[in-house]
C-alpha cells in the first residue's frame, strides 16, 4: 500500500524585546551569568504578579500580520498548568481559547499554501542544565517573550517543512522581532507527524510529536526517519498512538519521550492576574516589505532570475544594499542584471561603497589586478600606513575599514577590485 | 489615658500633641503583647520597634526580610526579599510592623483553626473561634495588641472575623488596592483590607494604600481616594439603604437577626430610607465561590512543588489539599465546561444582581455572619458547615464590591457585625454610612475583658 505523510508544525520564536514578557528584567539573557536577570515575578515568588510587555504584544501582532492573520479584537491570556522544574509558577502564562492572531497563511515556492491556525503570545521557561547527577536552573530565560506559530496539518514532506521553517525564519528577521537562531534556541520547531493510506482524506487517528530538535537539518532527518518508522509499523499491522518523541543524532533515530497515558491535562483557564486585551486590532504597527513581495518586485522591476533574487532578498540588509548599488549604477548605465551577477558571484561584503561596485563592474574588462600575492602585498602596505584604522577595525569599529579600502585603491591606482579588497583586508585583520 | 485604647486617628493626634512619644506608644503595645499573646496566639512573630505607629500584618502579606509563612508549614522558613505594596505604603506613612499575625493556612478557612501554627482564640471568649481567615489580625485589634492591622479578604476573611471579634473590618473594591505581595489564594477575589478601631481609621489607612503601583494590572485608576480626614456624616438623610430578603432566610440565628434588625432601625432613625431588595442568585454564591476559588487555588499553589521552598507538598494541611483537589477537578478536561465555565457564568449573574439592586439603593446592609463566634473545634469535622458560614460575605467577593463590617451589638456576650455593601468602586459611601452608624452607637467602644 502507498502512504502519504501529514505534518503540522509548531514554531516557538523568542522575541528580542528589551525586557521580559511579564516583568521588567532584561530579556537579553544569552551568555549572561546565570540567575542575574531575575526578580520576584520571573522567579515566581509568592505575592508577585505579571505585567504585560506592550512591545512584545506589538511584535506578536507584526508576526501575525506578516502571516496574513486576523488580529483578534479581544484576546485573553490563560494559564497552562503543569509541573516542571523550569516552570517556577507551576504554570505558564500562554494563550489558548483567545489567541492574539488567527487564520493566516504562508505560500511555498511551489505555490502551495500552508494555513496558519494561530500566532499567540506566551512566556519562556527557565533553562535547565544537567551536570553529572545535578540539575541546575537558570531563571534568566524565565518569562522571556515567546510567540508560538501553529499551522494546520498541511505539509506532506520534510522538504516542505524545511522551506516553511526557513521562510518563517526569514520573516522573523525581516520584521526584526528575533534573531531566530535555531542553535541558540531563539527559534524552536515541533512537528506533528503521521501517515495515512494514499487517497484517504480524513486525518489519521494519532499523531507523533517531534520535540526538542534544534536545527533544520535534524528536523528533516527526524521527520524522514519517523515517516519510515510509521509506514513500517502500519505494514506490520501495528497500531500507532499519540506520543512525543525526540531525536538521537548519534543513532540517527527518534526515541519515545512521553506516551499518550502520560499526556498532560493542562487545565487551561483565563489568567486572573491579567486584564483582557481589548481593541488589539486597532494597534498600529509598521511592516517592512516582506520577502515574498520583495521577490516579486525584484523579478519584475529588475528582470532578474528567481535564484539570484533568492540570494539578494535573503536578508533585508542584502536587499537594501543591492538597491543602493542599482541606484548608484543608474548614471553609469550599469544594469541591475550586471549588478546582481556581480554581487551574487563575488559574494560582495556589504561594507563596500556602492559606487566602488559600479566602478569595478565598469573596469571589469580593463586591467584589474588578478595576482593574489600582489594584492595581499598592497593590502598589507595599506594597513601598515594606517595602523590606527586597522586597530579601530579590530576594536569593532566596522566603518574603519573604509579608510583601508581607500588606501588599497590609492596604492593600486584604482586597479583593485573592491569586493576582493574587502575580503583580503578582513582576512589580514582577523 | 490608656494608650492602647486609642484609635489610629486619636493616636496620631496624641503624638502630634506630644501626649506620649513613639517609644512610649510602642512600649505600651509590646507590653500588652507580652502579657496577652501567649493566651490568644495572635502573633506568629513580634518585631520590637521603638519608632512609628505599630500595626499588625497578616502573615500572608509579604514583608521584606521578615519571615512570611502564610500560616503554612510549607513556608515555615520563607523570608521574602520584597515588601507587599500595602506594606511599603504603610511604612512611608510612619507605620511600623509590630508583628505578623496568625491565619488559616493560605487564608483558607473561616475560623482560624487551619493554621499550621496553632489556632488563634477569640478575645471575647477564649473558648470561641475568632473567625477567619484573618484570625490574628482581627483578634489583634479586638485585644488592643496593635493600633490597627492589615488582612486579606477573598470570600469574607476580613468582614467575618471583624464581626466575630467586634472590630471594624473593611474590604475595599477589587482593584482599588494593589495585590502585589499578597501570597495569592484566589487571584480574582483576593483583596487587601483593614481591621481598625473605628471607621475613620479604615478610611485613613485606605487613603494610604489605595491606587496603582504599576505592579498589579487589575488596579483601576478610577477616582483617587481621599487621604484627608473627612467630617463624618451625622445623619443619613437622602441615603437609600437596601435590605436583601435573601440574607434573612434559613440558617440565620434569630438572635443575630434581632440585632441586625435593630441596627437597620437605627439607620432609619438616622434618616435613611430603607428599601427591600432582592439578590436572587445569592443561594448559588457558596457553590460558585468554591469552584472558582478552588480552581485558582489549584494553580496558585502549584509553585509550592517541593523544588524551591524547602518543603514537600505533604506539608500542606488538610483544607489546602482539599481545595487543590477540588480545583484541579473543576478545571480538568471534560469537566471544565460543567464546573469552571458554568461557575463563571453564574458569577456574572451574581454581579448583575448587585448592579440591579444598586439602581435602587446606595448601599445594601445585612448580617456578616449567620451566627456569632462558635466553639473552637465545633465545625472542624464538617467543612460544608464551615463553608456555609460565609454565605453572606461570598457574593460581594464574587462581585468585587466594597464591604464593611461594623460592630452593631451583642448576643450572649459575643459581638455581632453589620455588613454594609456598596457599588463597585464607591467605597466612600460604604464608609460614610458605616461612620454615621458608628457615631450614633457605642458598640465599637466596648472592649473584651482580658483578665483570663
Q: How would you describe what is shown here?
A:
The complex is a heterodimer of chains A (430) and B (452). The model of chain A has no long low-confidence stretch (mean pLDDT 91). Chain A is an alpha+beta fold and 430 residues long. In chain A, the strands form 4 sheets. In chain A, strands 2-6-7-10-1-11-12-13-14 form a 9-stranded mixed β-sheet, with helices on one face. A 3-stranded antiparallel β-sheet of chain A has the order 5-4-15, with no helix packed on it. Chain A has a two-stranded antiparallel sheet with strand order 3-16. Chain A contains 12 helices and 16 strands. Chain B is α/β, with parallel strands linked by helices. In chain B, 35% of the residues lie in helices and 15% in strands. Chain B is built from 13 helices and 11 strands. An 11-stranded mixed β-sheet of chain B has the order 1-3-2-4-6-5-10-11-9-7-8, with helices on both faces. In chain B, helix 8 crosses helix 9. The two termini of chain B are 23 Å apart. Chains A and B meet through loops of A and helix 8 of B.
Order of strands across the widest beta sheet of chain A?
2-6-7-10-1-11-12-13-14
Structural class category of chain A: alpha+beta
Tally of alpha and pi helices of chain B: 13
Biggest sheet of chain B, in brief?
Answer: 11 strands, mixed
| Assigned CATH class of chain B | Alpha Beta
Shape, per Cα inertia axes of chain B: globular
Low-confidence stretches of chain A: none
* Residue share in helix of chain B: 25-40%
Helices of chain A, by number, come to 12
- CATH homologous superfamily of chain B? Amidase signature (AS) domain
Helical content band of chain A = 25-40%
Proportion of strand residues of chain A: 15-25%
The secondary-structure class of chain B comes to: alpha/beta
Give the percentage of residues in beta strands of chain B: 5-15%
Total strand segments of chain B: 11
Q: List low-pLDDT spans of chain B.
A: none
User: How would you state the average pLDDT of chain A, rounded?
Assistant: 91
Q: Helices and strands of chain A, in N-to-C order?
A: EHEEEEEEEEEHEEHEEEEHHHHHHHHH
**Remind me, CATH topology of chain B?**
Amidase signature (AS) enzymes
Amino acid at each position: 500500500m502507498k502512504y502519504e505523510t501529514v505534518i503540522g508544525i509548531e514554531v516557538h520564536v523568542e522575541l528580542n524585546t528589551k525586557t521580559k514578557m511579564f516583568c521588567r528584567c532584561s530579556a537579553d539573557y544569552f551568555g549572561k551569568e546565570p540567575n542575574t536577570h531575575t526578580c520576584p515575578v520571573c522567579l515566581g515568588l509568592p505575592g508577585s504578579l505579571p505585567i504585560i510587555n506592550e512591545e512584545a504584544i506589538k511584535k506578536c501582532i507584526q508576526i501575525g500580520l506578516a502571516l496574513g492573520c486576523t488580529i483578534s479584537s479581544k484576546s485573553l491570556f490563560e494559564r497552562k498548568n503543569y509541573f516542571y522544574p523550569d516552570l517556577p509558577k507551576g504554570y505558564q502564562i500562554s494563550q489558548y481559547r483567545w489567541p492574539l492572531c488567527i487564520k493566516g497563511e504562508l505560500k511555498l515556492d511551489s505555490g502551495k499554501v500552508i494555513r496558519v491556525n494561530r500566532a499567540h503570545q506566551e512566556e519562556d521557561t527557565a533553562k535547565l542544565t544537567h551536570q553529572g547527577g545535578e540539575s541546575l536552573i537558570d531563571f534568566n530565560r524565565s518569562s522571556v517573550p515567546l510567540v508560538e506559530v501553529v499551522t494546520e496539518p498541511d505539509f506532506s514532506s520534510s522538504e516542505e517543512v524545511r522551506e516553511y521553517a526557513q521562510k518563517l525564519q526569514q520573516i522573523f528577521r525581516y520584521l526584526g522581532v528575533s534573531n531566530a537562531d535555531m542553535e541558540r534556541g531563539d527559534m524552536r520547531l515541533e512537528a506533528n507527524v503521521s501517515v495515512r493510506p494514499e487517497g484517504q482524506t480524513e486525518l489519521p487517528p494519532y499523531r507523533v510529536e517531534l520535540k526538542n530538535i534544534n536545527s533544520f537539518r535534524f528536523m528533516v532527518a527526524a521527520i524522514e526517519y519517523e515517516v519510515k518508522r510509521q509506514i513500517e509499523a502500519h505494514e506490520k499491522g501495528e497500531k500507532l498512538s499519540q506520543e512525543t518523541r525526540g531525536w538521537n543524532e548519534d543513532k540517527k533515530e527518534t526515541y519515545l519521550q512521553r506516551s499518550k497515558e502520560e499526556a498532560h491535562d493542562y487545565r487551561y483557564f483565563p489568567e486572573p492576574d491579567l486584564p483582557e486585551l481589548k481593541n488589539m486590532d486597532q494597534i498600529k504597527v509598521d511592516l517592512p516589505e516582506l520577502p515574498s513581495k520583495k521577490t516579486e518586485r525584484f523579478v519584475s522591476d529588475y528582470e532578474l532570475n528567481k535564484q539570484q533574487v533568492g540570494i539578494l532578498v535573503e536578508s533585508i540588509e542584502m536587499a537594501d544594499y543591492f538597491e543602493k548599488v542599482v541606484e548608484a549604477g543608474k548614471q553609469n548605465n550599469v544594469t541591475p542584471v550586471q549588478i546582481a551577477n556581480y554581487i551574487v558571484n563575488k559574494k560582495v561584503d556589504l561594507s563596500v561603497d556602492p559606487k566602488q561596485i559600479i566602478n569595478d563592474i565598469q573596469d571589469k574588462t580593463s586591467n584589474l589586478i588578478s595576482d593574489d600575492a600582489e594584492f595581499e602585498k598592497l593590502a598589507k602596505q595599506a594597513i601598515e600606513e594606517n595602523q590606527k584604522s586597522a586597530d579601530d577595525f579590530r576594536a569593532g569599529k566596522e566603518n574603519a575599514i573604509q579608510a583601508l579600502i581607500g588606501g588599497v585603491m590609492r596604492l593600486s591606482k584604482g586597479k583593485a577590485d573592491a569586493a576582493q579588497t574587502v575580503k583580503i583586508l578582513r582576512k589580514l585583520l582577523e | 489615658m490608656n494608650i492602647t485604647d486609642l484609635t489610629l486617628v486619636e493616636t496620631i493626634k496624641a503624638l502630634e500633641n506630644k501626649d506620649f512619644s513613639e517609644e512610649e506608644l510602642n512600649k505600651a503595645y509590646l507590653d500588652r503583647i507580652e502579657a496577652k499573646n501567649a493566651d490568644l496566639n495572635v502573633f506568629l512573630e513580634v518585631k520590637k520597634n521603638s519608632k512609628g505607629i505599630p500595626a499588625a500584618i497578616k502573615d500572608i502579606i509579604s514583608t521584606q526580610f521578615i519571615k512570611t509563612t502564610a500560616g503554612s508549614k510549607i513556608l515555615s522558613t520563607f523570608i521574602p526579599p520584597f515588601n507587599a505594596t500595602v506594606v511599603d505604603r504603610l511604612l512611608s506613612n510612619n507605620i511600623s510592623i509590630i508583628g505578623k499575625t496568625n491565619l488559616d493556612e493560605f487564608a483558607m478557612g473561616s475560623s482560624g483553626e487551619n493554621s499550621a501554627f496553632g489556632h488563634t482564640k477569640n478575645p471575647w471568649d477564649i473558648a470561641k473561634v475568632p473567625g477567619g481567615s484573618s484570625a490574628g489580625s482581627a483578634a489583634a485589634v479586638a485585644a488592643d495588641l496593635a493600633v490597627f492591622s492589615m488582612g486579606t479578604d477573598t470570600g469574607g476573611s476580613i468582614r467575618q472575623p471583624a464581626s466575630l471579634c467586634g472590630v471594624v473590618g473593611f474590604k475595599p473594591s477589587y482593584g482599588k488596592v494593589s495585590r502585589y505581595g499578597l501570597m495569592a489564594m484566589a487571584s480574582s477575589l483576593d483583596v487587601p483590607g483593614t481591621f481598625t478601631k473605628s471607621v475613620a481609621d479604615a478610611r485613613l489607612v485606605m487613603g494610604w494604600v489605595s491606587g496603582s503601583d504599576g505592579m498589579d494590572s487589575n488596579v483601576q485608576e478610577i477616582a483617587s481616594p481621599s487621604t484627608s480626614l473627612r467630617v463624618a456624616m451625622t445623619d443619613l438623610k437622602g441615603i437609600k439603604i437596601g435590605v436583601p430578603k435573601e440574607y434573612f432566610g434559613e440558617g440565620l440565628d434569630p438572635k443575630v437577626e434581632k440585632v441586625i434588625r435593630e441596627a437597620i432601625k437605627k439607620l432609619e432613625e438616622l434618616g435613611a430610607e430603607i428599601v427591600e431588595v432582592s439578590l436572587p442568585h445569592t443561594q448559588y454564591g457558596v457553590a460558585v465561590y468554591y469552584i472558582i476559588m478552588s480552581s485558582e487555588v489549584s494553580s496558585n499553589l502549584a509553585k509550592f512543588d517541593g523544588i524551591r521552598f524547602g518543603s514537600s507538598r505533604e506539608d500542606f494541611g488538610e483544607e489546602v489539599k482539599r481545595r487543590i483537589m477540588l480545583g484541579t477537578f473543576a478545571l480538568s478536561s471534560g469537566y471544565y465546561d460543567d464546573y469552571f465555565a458554568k461557575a463563571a457564568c453564574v458569577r456574572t449573574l451574581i454581579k448583575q444582581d448587585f448592579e440591579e439592586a444598586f439602581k435602587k439603593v446606595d448601599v445594601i446592609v445585612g448580617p456578616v455572619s449567620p451566627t456569632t463566634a462558635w466553639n473552637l473545634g465545633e465545625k472542624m469535622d464538617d467543612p460544608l458547615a464551615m463553608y456555609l458560614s460565609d454565605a453572606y460575605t461570598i457574593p460581594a467577593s464574587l462581585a468585587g464590591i466594597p464591604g464593611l463590617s461594623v460592630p452593631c451589638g451583642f448576643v450572649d456576650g459575643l459581638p455581632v457585625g453589620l455588613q454594609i455593601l456598596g457599588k463597585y468602586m464607591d467605597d466612600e459611601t460604604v464608609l460614610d454610612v458605616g461612620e454615621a452608624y458608628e457615631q450614633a452607637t457605642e458598640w465599637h467602644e466596648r472592649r473584651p475583658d482580658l483578665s483570663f
